[in-house]
Design goal:
Layout (H helix, E strand, L loop, with lengths): L1 H10 L4 H9 L3 H19 L2 E4 L1 E6 L25 H13 L4 E6 L7 H14 L4 E5 L5 H10 L3 E3 L7 H7 L6 H14 L2 E8 L6 H14 L3 E6 L16 H14 L9 H6 L3 H7 L4 E2 L6 H4 L15 H14 L3 E3 L10
Parallel strand pairs: 1-8, 1-9, 2-3, 3-4, 4-5, 5-6, 6-7
Helix pairs in contact: 1-3, 2-9, 3-10, 4-5, 5-6, 6-8
The structure holds 5'-deoxyadenosine and FE2/S2 (inorganic) cluster.
């Protein structure tokens, strides 16, 4: 098995059957071998710097009904909120003072935020903080809308594909949501010129090793600038409430594999990873991740942006999260960078 990892390290690719073999044979020893290589690759591109993105969860209204998600429209227990433009700008101001140079605007697919409103918000942020990157994470939109947001100053877009297998996609989403639409959106975003992030949940219901291999192959082929993966975690108000969560071991292993597949990609150690294990984010960095995304949302709404149960950091001020992460990163030999942290192509 170690020879497969050596090959992956050298060629940044493996065949479908090799990836399958690798995922079927995960052991703690093999994982450690993989993580050493993945860390070395991260070090090579990013040194000991960990990029930070300030996450602003600005609306938890959503018109979609993804079976796994706590803010799905049919969850009548969700307490819904929207931030005003002024509130969003004040999160950015606070974030800027704390050293953030990327703001991620994430929300459900909320019709209240028309293209016009989004353009106004994006251009206002850009005007007030011209040295910052803006990342959007607001779901599936038309080419035209994506173009408008880009023209207004959005730099990056996160849209996880969730699973690259149509039948699995259909077991996680209602009929009106299609993997083909998701893929089209990702192509559109890339064509427009965004730095694009995609990714998937690890251990989502019905997921097989074959599905995961398809995810890895899709990502290798699409070659996104950013890759976000995290364990599936059940939410009590969904039909997957009693499904088991994805495991730390498998998530870390996949982070390591993704680092070797796309050596210069921006890969966050996600909040979901920090939720299933108290030092999950540190372990994510040590498995090859190089980004953290602390929360900048006002504490008054934090607990309502509940995609899954027991989400961490819901009671902590932005400054506390930043400090906490800084300490965590320092403890494992890394430091939080205050740069924008754009994707750098390999030359
Ligand atoms: N567990 C883990 N991740 C989830 N997401 C949504 N619901 C859950 C859940 N129950 C992830 C999806 C989405 C991202 C914003 O959050 O992958 O793309
Ligand atoms: Fe939020 Fe530690 S990162 S409290």
């Amino acid at each position: 098995m170690k020879s497969l990892i050596d090959q992956l390290d050298q060629e940044h690719n493996l065949s479908q059957s090799q990836l399958t073999t690798l995922l079927q044979n995960i052991t703690p020893e093999l994982s450690e071998y993989l993580f050493e290589k993945a860390r070395a690759t991260s070090q090579n591109y990013f040194g000991n710097a960990i990029y930070t993105r300030g996450l602003i969860e600005f609306t938890n209204y959503c018109k979609n009904d993804c079976y796994y998600c706590g803010i799905r429209k049919s969850n009548s227990n969700a307490i819904r909120y929207r931030l005003t433009k002024e509130q969003i700008l004040s999160c950015c101001k606070q974030g800027h003072e704390l050293g953030f140079r990327t703001f991620v605007l994430q929300g459900g697919e909320d019709g209240f935020f028309t293209d016009e409103k989004m353009v106004d918000i994006i251009s206002s942020i850009k005007k007030a903080f011209p040295d910052c990157a803006i990342t959007l994470s607001i779901g599936e939109k038309s080419y035209d809308s994506y173009q408008k947001f880009y023209n207004a100053g959005a730099d990056r877009y996160l849209l996880r594909h969730e699973t690259a297998t149509d039948s699995h996609y259909a077991s996680l989403h209602p009929k009106n949501l299609l993997l083909s639409t998701r893929k089209q959106c990702l192509q559109d975003l890339k064509e427009i010129g965004y730095q694009v992030g995609t990714g998937f949940m690890v251990g989502s219901p019905y997921q097989t090793i074959e599905n995961l291999v398809a995810d890895l192959q899709f990502i290798k082929e699409f070659s996104p600038h950013m890759i976000g993966i995290g364990p599936f975690i059940p939410h009590k108000d969904t039909q997957f409430a009693s499904e088991p969560a994805g495991t730390l071991e498998l998530t870390l292993f996949l982070i390591g594999v993704l680092r070797l597949l796309l050596p210069n990609a921006l890969i966050p150690a996600t909040t979901a990873l920090g939720t299933i294990d108290p030092t999950g984010r540190e372990k994510g960095i040590l498995a090859g991740a190089n980004v953290v995304m602390p929360n900048l949302s006002p504490t008054s709404v934090r607990k309502n942006y509940s995609l899954y149960d027991n989400k961490i950091c819901t009671g902590d001020e932005a400054a506390e999260c930043r400090l906490c992460l800084e300490k965590r990163m320092n403890k494992i030999g890394y430091y939080l960078s205050s740069e924008r942290g754009d994707f750098q192509p390999i030359i």
